[in-house]
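quick one before i forget lol
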Amino acid sequence: MKGVQEPTNRGWFFQGYAPLNALMGVRTTGQLIRGKEELRLFAEKWSNSGKGQVYFASFEFQGHKAPLSWSMNPSQQAEITKQWDQLIIDSKSDLRTVRCFFDPSYEGCLKKQIP
């Protein structure tokens, strides 16, 4: 069949580290999905209470191999700076949501967006 991969025999070594490999692969994705769901539920409950509206802004590291330590080498620091600069340049960024929250008169804000 076209498009179907045949299973491969990776042996006992792969089976030894496969659970750790899977854990590392879904760790950040699972946290992100769970966090977004928790925020969605909070926003729904908050808006149903009549207390106001919740605005979302998400800042995710879009580069490869996100640093996982507080102590970063120079190339990791440079990648953080590069990603931040790209976020600022991106006009569709959530940075605008945060800016409008703190400064509703900012030229990029919609009047109805921020109470």
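fyi The chain has a mean pLDDT of 76.
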